[in-house]
Amino acid sequence: MKQGYHHGNLRQALVEAALVLTAKLGPTGFTLSEAAKAADVTPAAVYRHFAGRDDLMAEVARQGYAIFAALMEFAYNNGQPTALAAFEATGRAYLAFARKYPGHYKAMFESGLNLNAHPDLALVAQKARSVLEKAAEQLSQHMPQGKRPPSSMFSAHIWALSHGVVELYMRGAPGAQSPFTPEDLLEAGIGIYLRGLGLLPPDL
Q: Is the pTM of this model over 0.90?
């Protein structure tokens, strides 16, 4: 029986329902009414908490970025002995997040949300990016100022590499048949990138 807006924590119940649907169908594969049905509430009750479907997906993505930022912070600060180890740990955390939180991941990166239209989402997304930027800045500190890439560009390259590994080699075809694990692919890619910057010695 539908219980309308008296259904416990309706806002979070809708988020949880949207997460399940997003993981299964993608962020555009279901309607707001279907999310309400999955949460066992009336469609009209949804609008007491969300202005529309984008508003619901923005909350799903916001919660995802909050988890993502926390995981990245933990990886970066968790007793890593060197700046390089901390930097590599953030890359592994990216893969771990995508594997463990597929609904959040899809909401964050595949929903087509305009961050400028959702200030709370934009704020937490920037927090997540800043962890990788901080790791990049620390790793490149000993490079000459004139040859040091901007930390935002440096981190964006690694973010793109991490995202590409997830998309091609963690989510089915075509990369599912790769003989290498996503972690090995990312580590090798980061190594090649850092050697190109002169931050790692060349292989002998």
A: no
- Contact indicator for 113, 121 with CB cutoff of 8 Å: yes
Question: Which residue in the block uniquely carries the two structure tokens 């990216």?
Answer: 94
CA atoms within 13 A on the CB side of 166: 22
- Domains, in order of start, for the chain: 1-50 (1.10.10), 54-196 (1.10.357.10)
Whether 72 and 132 have beta carbons less than 8 Å apart is answered as yes
Long-range contacts (CB closer than 8 Å, 24 or more residues apart) made by 157-161: 157/193, 158/87, 158/90, 158/91, 158/132, 158/190, 158/193, 159/94, 159/129, 159/132, 161/91, 161/186, 161/189, 161/190, 161/193
Cα gap 7→17, rounded to integer Å: 13
Residue 8 in tokens: 């416990």
Fill in the DSSP letter of residue 147: G
Contact 41, 4 (CB under 8 A): yes
pLDDT digits (tens, 9 = 90+) for 49-73: 898 889 999 999 999 999 999 999 9
